[in-house]
Amino acid sequence: MNKTIKNIIIALSFLIAVIPFNVYSGEIDLEIKGIHLGMKEKDVLSKLSNKHITIGGVEGTTRQQYDADGGLAFFAFSFTLDGFQNVYKAVNSKYPLRCEKDVVKNAMNATFERTTCLWESSVASLILDNNRNSINDASLLFASKKFVKQQQDYIKNDI
């Protein structure tokens, strides 16, 4: 498993498990830019331009993983931190995000504010996060809960 994907799954698992968000738990289909969980790879790629996409006027790159049936199970949109508020506004207008802020410190003791936002249904989770892996980057992730559970089980067995 790609180390970056593994780290994202660990973070996603942690956020879903321990952060006390009041989240929406209804059955709304999660869809961003025409891309939704369960889509076949060829259909996902037809929505992307060379793995690039724009959300809220912010351009970024994407990564995807698919389940055993070939359906989209995990989608990540990575972009620069200066686009965070625009992506937040675009996503929050469709999926009411619950956000928390905390302070993170790097190896040189510099501190940065990190914002983590979550929307969750009974079958999927969406996370918007800044300053997790780099002080200059942000990401929007969505994944099926089934995929997250499978990855948690894989990671437990891999440790």
Q: Which secondary-structure class do the elements indicate?
A: alpha+beta
Number of domains: 1
Helix content: 25-40%
Q: What's the β-strand tally?
A: 9
Q: Give me the number of helical elements.
A: 4
The H-and-E topology, N to C, reads as HEEHEEEHEEEEH
Task: For the largest sheet, list the strands in their spatial order.
Answer: 3-4-5-9-8-7-6
Strand content: 35-45%
Mean pLDDT: 80
Description:
The chain has one domain (about 5-25, about 60-159). About 30% of the residues lie in helices and about 35% in strands. It is built from four helices and nine strands. The strands form two sheets. It has a seven-stranded antiparallel beta sheet with strand order 3-4-5-9-8-7-6. Strands 1-2 form a two-stranded antiparallel ribbon. Helix 1 crosses helix 4 (about 145-159). The protein is globular and about 45 Å long. Residues about 15-30 have low confidence and may be disordered.
Brief summary:
The protein contains four helices and nine strands; from the N terminus they run H-E-E-H-E-E-E-H-E-E-E-E-H. Helix 1 packs across helix 4.
Keywords:
159 residues, alpha+beta, 29% helix, 37% strand, globular
Give a topology summary.
Layout: H1 3-18, E1 31-32, E2 35-36, H2 41-47, E3 52-55, E4 58-66, E5 72-80, H3 84-92, E6 98-105, E7 111-120, E8 124-130, E9 137-144, H4 145-158
Antiparallel strand pairs: 1-2, 3-4, 4-5, 5-9, 6-7, 7-8, 8-9
Helix pairs in contact: 1-4
